[in-house]
Automatic annotation (TrEMBL):
One of its GO terms (molecular function) is protein serine/threonine kinase activity. It is an enzyme of class 2 (transferase). The keyword Zinc does not apply. This is non-specific serine/threonine protein kinase. Its EC number is 2.7.11.1. PROSITE patterns: PROTEIN_KINASE_DOM, PROTEIN_KINASE_ST. The lineage of its organism: Eukaryota, Viridiplantae, Streptophyta, Embryophyta, Tracheophyta. SUPFAM superfamilies: Protein kinase-like (PK-like) (SSF56112). It catalyses: L-seryl-[protein] + ATP = O-phospho-L-seryl-[protein] + ADP + H(+); L-threonyl-[protein] + ATP = O-phospho-L-threonyl-[protein] + ADP + H(+). The keyword Signal does not apply. Residues 1-180 form the Protein kinase domain. Keywords: ATP-binding, Kinase, Nucleotide-binding, Serine/threonine-protein kinase, Transferase.
Length: 221
């Protein structure tokens, strides 16, 4: 793909600075629509769970349209069939939903991963303490030269709802796409998320490339 992956863009100071808030919002919306298709609109009534949603698996074309890639560990099942049970969980630490350790696998697994992705796209930091203290501007990547706006707060709130510990407290991807496309739809207040208890998805290279965020990451851990 012309612009490689989202991980490639965000893990570098200059490349990350080139990705505006407008473009990041476009990417978030595109990822949500892709997951909604896999979960709710795939051919033959199938439900497809990707199981490895992460920055490096989001490819970007020449116009930064996101493409979900690497379906090597994806699972599929019929709408009216039995949900799959996993005896040997695989995936990427930091993006795996907490219930997965017990072998439970539903589309809410991908919802959790999506929430982690959104928080990383916006900030690259753990978000709960900043959210609970209403310090929303601190979540914004320092390379995004925009003033605080209500839209950003809403995106953060949606992401935190996606990373709730209980799968039943998370929205499905159809709800997420509706929330992202209609700011008039109300949102519930997120509880303290499971995201607090898992490592960030970024690898060590990210912290090296982004030393300005390192203190923030340590502070919020």
């Amino acid at each position: 793909m012309p612009n490689r992956s989202l991980d490639y863009v965000l893990s570098d100071r200059e490349r990350g600075a080139s990705l505006s808030w407008f473009m990041r919002r476009h990417i978030i919306n595109g990822i949500a629509q892709g997951l909604d298709y896999l979960h709710n609109h795939a051919p033959e009534g199938l439900i497809i769970i990707h199981r490895d949603m992460k920055l490096s698996n989001i490819l970007l074309d020449s116009e930064n349209n996101p493409k979900i890639s690497d379906f090597g560990i994806a699972r599929k099942f019929c709408l009216n069939g039995t949900e799959p049970y996993v005896t040997h969980p695989v995936g990427t630490p930091g993006y795996m939903a907490p219930e997965y350790i017990h072998g439970d696998l539903t589309p809410k697994y991908d919802v959790f991963s999506f929430g982690v992705l959104v928080l990383e796209i916006i900030s690259g930091r753990r978000a709960w303490n900043i959210w609970s203290n209403r310090r929303y501007n601190e979540l914004l990547d320092p390379y995004l030269r925009v003033e605080f706006q209500e839209e950003l707060t809403r995106q953060i709130q949606i992401a935190l709802l996606c990373v709730q510990k209980n799968p039943g407290d998370r929205p499905d991807m159809h709800e997420v796409t509706m929330w992202l496309s209609n700011n008039g739809l109300g949102l519930s207040e997120p509880q303290e998320p499971a995201y607090l208890n898992v490592p960030l998805g970024y690898n060590d290279d990210f912290v090296t490339a982004r030393p300005d965020l390192e203190a923030g990451i340590i502070e919020l851990q």
